[in-house]
Fold Putative inositol-1-monophosphatase.
Amino acid sequence: MNTKEIDRLAREWLLEAGAIIKQEVAECKYQISEKTGPSDLVTSVDKKIEKFFAKKIAEFFPTHQLVAEEDDAHKFSTFKGVTWILDPIDGTLNFVQQQANYAISLGIFEENHGQLAYVFDVERGSVYSCIVGEGVFVDNVKVERLRVDPSLEESLLIMNFGIIASNYLNLADAGRRARAVRLYGVASLEMMAVIVGQADGYISRSLMPWDIAAGYIMAKELNLEVTRIDGSEINVLETGSLMIASKEVHQTLSTDYIKKTEIN
Ligand code: IPD
Ligand code: CA
Ligand code: CA
């Protein structure tokens, strides 16, 4: 695979896609619809961005497969050749309510090996990127994590509201033991907070391939722990839980909380 050429085009397309989103926000004519309920939204912008990438990939890389959220034609359950995994807008609810705190998330795999990853925080204009083997960058500045391996007591955790509200696997208790808990509502940027060291762990009960693909590649690149909640390996094309954290935090969450509770 021609990594440099894919990187050049992926960056170009991300910036173009970001400009399309900003234009849509400025015109304020996009349609919002509910998928499974009032908190599960999709907009005409999500669909437009997915179509934009699908067209570009088909034109430049006709043999590559695209896995993406909105179109049933973009669903594959196995890796074959080069696979692009795209969330055209991650954090759609934030996009609708706040016009901020959303991102385009893109991970590119050769067979099942992550090779390139991008998360574009469109409102802030920040691009998180990674070519595997070269490190992780934010706007072309190499990431050096703030706190390398803190204890749980020194850590900042990110968890979904559902986990906190039900004290799932006693993880709300773990949150009390941590320095603080935050909640952003956008999985890709929550993973990026751990990637850059603004947070030390992020836990979610259920995420889709396009939510985690980019963050998973970057976490592996930085030697962070990235597993299902029960500690098992992740197959990025399957839906499931996520626990990304620095080593000691991952270990403490696992041994002091998760493994002491029956997983349901
Ligand atoms: C959602 C966001 C949210 C996470 C949900 C995802 P979407 O993605 O990342 O933070 O908790 O599980 O589905 O639907 O806005 O692309
Ligand atoms: Ca998403
Ligand atoms: Ca989405």
The longest strand covers residues 82-90. Residues 87, 90-93, 160, 185-187, 204, 207, 211 surround D-MYO-inositol-1-phosphate (ligand 1) (CB under 6 Å). The chain has a mean pLDDT of 96. The two ends are 41 Å apart (CA to CA).
